[in-house]
Amino acid sequence: MPSSIRLEERNHNELNKMKLDSMTFVLFGATGDLAKRKIFPALYNLFLDGKFPHSFSIIGLGRRSWSDNTFQAHIEESLKTFSRRLESNTASIEKFLRAFRYVALDVTNGETYEKLLDMIQQRERELSIPENRLFYLSVSPEFVDVITSNINQSGLGSTTGWKRLIIEKPFGHDLLSAQELNQKLLQTFKEEEIYRIDHYLGKTMVQNLEAIIFANPILQVLRNNQCISNIQITASETVGVEERASYYDQSGALRDMVQNHMLQLLMMTAMHLPKSRNAKHIREQKIKVMENLRPLGKKTIDLHVVRGQYESGEIHGESVVGYKEEPGITPCTVNDTFVAARLWIDDYFWNGVPFYIRTGKRMKEKSTRIVIEFKNSFNDLYAVENREINPNILVIEIGPNEGISLQLNSKNALNYNKIEPILTQFSSDQKDVPEAYELLLFDALRGDATFFASWKEVELSWRWVQPILEAFKNNDLPLHSYSAGSMGPDASDQLLKEDGFIWW
Ligand SMILES: NC(=O)C1=CN([C@@H]2O[C@H](COP(=O)(O)OP(=O)(O)OC[C@H]3O[C@@H](n4cnc5c(N)ncnc54)[C@H](OP(=O)(O)O)[C@@H]3O)[C@@H](O)[C@H]2O)C=CC1
Ligand SMILES: O=C1O[C@H](COP(=O)(O)O)[C@@H](O)[C@H](O)[C@H]1O
Fold first, then answer.
1. Ligand nearest to the CA of 34
2. 311 labelled binding-site residue
3. Cis peptide before 53 (omega within 30 of 0)
4. What region holds the Glucose-6-phosphate dehydrogenase NAD-binding domain (predicted)?
5. Cα(82)–Cα(423) distance, integer angstroms
6. Are 374 and 392 in contact (CB under 8 A)?
7. Is it the case that residue 2 has pLDDT exceeding 70?
8. Model-level pTM?
């Protein structure tokens, strides 16, 4: 039997084993940007891949008074514009769109939820589906509280089947607001029913980290403070604030990227071997990383954290304005568009290994990557002829390119046998791989919370970030400027130089 057939059969069998429960998908914010760009295309691709329940109902909500037809036409347009499947398969689209209904409601008005409940129940009866309900809140965070309490009071959440809640970032504005929000959610949903999206956890290479680390014994053996000198996590972006000035100027890189995505990458990189690959055990290990993350005292923040803001510059040959000149930004703003930090995980395993993170807008390149630098323990043997031997480094490219490379040392016969670095590289050129939202939504449909942020992770992340937020607010740290198109302020390079390292 050709191997491709075996693979197809296996995939088919795998999918059969995962029989998904019939259910209702209730989408708040269905007329919004995220729904159009990410959620509908992701649902459609899952549908095409057979990763959808046999019977399902999808109900979209927004304030504008759309008919079902207008809503379905809007979804069709979104699929044609944003789905990674370029072929427009009319029969599949039609079948998919038939599942959608639209209800106009103001989420702040508790009385209108009756209308929604009627629609949900009517569709459950028509399709003979159990009361399994997934509520996706793709709305501004200020509405999360009122929607969940209205779900509770209207009876929408009292189902005879399961219920789940998916919520988008940001989860709170600081530690206190996140705790308050969580308390409110818990009045309607149990922790295991809440799926907090961090789209970085949906990236294929982030989901692959666990396998790269734990399914490769050669890496596992080397993954400790005896062999590793430091670990660097970078998420650099070339874009500026785009059309999100009002949000970003209040948020800054610390809230927008560090509290969630960067710390999630840290947890995924540093966690110890879990007992199993289920959500409970993986989350336990991630939480341990955060519990052991050394808190930054008020007096030490400026030693370990660099705050930056971009000035005008050039990116890919084009001139761009500085942050203060961006439309909608307060001219005297001291908001952070760049953050770098040195972190320590105080456990036997990582003791003495600094972790560095950096993220910023309007940088030289768009790249999210994790770099593991190994110690140069055998340097003496080659020191005379070579003075400096490059360290072995393992680079895990998360996006936009996906790949793994390992820098080794080798003699170069064409250069007097000098020891020089060589790169062994794997780049994923797989086409048509599922997007983050597809992977995450599929997990939520089948009730697997492994790649969603648990409350404890979110709370511990805010707890670590909180003193830095306060230091930024009180201007206790310098605000370093950096030119757009650079890799951030010099102070960020200095942070590593102090320890004898450079950013890779
Ligand atoms: N867009 C993105 O790329 C990303 C967004 N997010 C998060 O996703 C969430 C949604 O973002 P986005 O789609 O961009 O936001 P939009 O502003 O584009 O959409 C907001 C949605 O909320 C609805 N809405 C607003 N007020 C009410 C109300 N009182 N009653 C009922 N519905 C209401 C709007 O409906 P109508 O207009 O019909 O009133 C619209 O459907 C936010 O939490 C955001 O932080 C997270 C990551 C990326
Ligand atoms: O959550 C966010 O992420 C994006 C970066 O995501 P990526 O998948 O392109 O790496 C960032 O631009 C945005 O400010 C932030 O809110």
1. 1
2. no
3. no
4. 26-208
5. 36
6. yes
7. no
8. 0.93
Told to judge if 261 belongs to the known catalytic residues of this protein, a careful annotator would answer yes
Q: Is 138 in the pocket of ligand 1 (CB under 6 A)?
A: yes
Distance (Å, whole) CA 288 – CA 200: 20
The answer to whether the annotation marks 33 as part of a ligand binding site is yes
Q: Which helix (H) or strand (E) holds 75?
A: helix 68-82
The two tokens of residue 148 are 């969940």
Inter-residue contact 388 to 382 (CB < 8 Å): no
What is the distance between the alpha carbons of residues 97 and 44, in angstroms, rounded to a whole number? 9
Token pair in block for residue 292: 């052991």
Residue 174 CA, chain-centre distance (Å), reads 18
> Confidence band (pLDDT; 50, 70, 90) for 431?
confident
Say whether pLDDT at 10 is over 50: no
Known binding residue 107? Answer is: yes
What's the one-letter identity of residue 420?
A: E
Among 6-10, 205-209, 407-411, 462-466, which is the least confidently predicted range? Answer: 6-10
What number of CA atoms fall less than 13 Å from residue 75's CA on the CB side? 31
The long-range contacts involving 500-504, CB below 8 angstroms and separated by at least 24 positions, are: 501/229, 501/230, 501/354, 501/356, 501/373, 503/232, 503/234, 503/356, 503/358, 504/232, 504/371, 504/373, 504/393, 504/395
Per the DSSP assignment, residues forming a β-bridge with 242 are none
pLDDT tens digit string along 104-154? 999 999 999 999 999 999 999 999 999 999 999 999 989 999 999 999 999
ipTM value > 0.95: yes
Summarised one tens digit per residue, pLDDT across range 196-227 is: 999 999 999 999 999 999 999 999 999 999 99
The total number of residues shown for the chain amounts to: 504
Measured from the CB, is residue 251 less than 6 Å from ligand 1? no
> Are 330 and 249 contacting, i.e. CB atoms less than 8 angstroms apart?
yes
| Structure confidence at residue 241 (pLDDT) | 92
| CA nearest ligand 2 atom 16, residue | 256
**What are the Cα distances from residue 237, in Å, to 186, 202, 253, 434?**
35, 18, 11, 22
